[in-house]
Amino acid sequence: MIKPSHARDSDVPRADLKGASLLAVFAHPDDESLAAGGLLSLCADSGVRVSLLCLTHGEHGPGPDGIELGEVRAIELVEAARVLGVHDVVLLDHEDGMIPSIDGALLEADILGAIDRFSPDVVVTFDEDGLYWHPDHIAVHERTTAVVAGLGDSGPALWYVSMPEGAMRAVIDAAGDHGGRANEILGVADPDAFGSMARTPSLVLEAGPFAARKLAALRCHHTQVDGGALERIRETDAERLLGTEHYRRADVGARGEAFIERLSCT
Ligand SMILES: [Zn+2]
Fold first, then answer.
1. What pLDDT is stored for residue 266 in this prediction?
2. CATH-assigned architecture of domain 21-250
3. What's the CA angle centered on 38, arms 40 and 125, to 5 degrees?
């Protein structure tokens, strides 16, 4: 397991990763912030060009009545990406909740298109547990893995993200148990589902100094966060509750050291 240094000595320069690039591939607006907000903002601050491919508008998720949810969530995603420092956002309009039944070749062409466009050194997507066995997330894991596998050694390195087990339970505890919808994490009623079946990470990223930005990005997703536990936690608790992220290197893609192994939060 690799634990990037996170010494707080301000004299120690952060790794300068100018010229490096990362593409995150996710299913819905808010996945990027919840799963990988620390990594994405740390990379952006380290000079990495960070791009995001989001395959749906999340139009069937929870949200207030009387709005075009997909359109509102597109705006929320752009705002969250700005907070995180993401340079490029590609938001596609595959149907929310239907990714497993969409033609795999079509999805793979979209993912390959983003890789061709941004030439990332590293691609990040869901691990095989889909954060909490969300079928859309698992399908994105499978399709992204297939695309990177097809590129062989000349493709990018592939890393999977999962949630630390117990992290979302801790958020509920910190927010105070108010029951019902107020206890939901982005529309998910069971906080223990997150990370409960996650594989052992090969990289634990301690991105505590970026957790406040991660929380700010999450809170850009008003339709998903407002009224829930992530709205009620204190910003001073963000580092403890949201600062640790888990990544695992895939068996496919480029070999050798990947730049995310050298990230430091100093
Ligand atoms: Zn999602």
1. 63
2. 3-Layer(aba) Sandwich (3.40)
3. 55
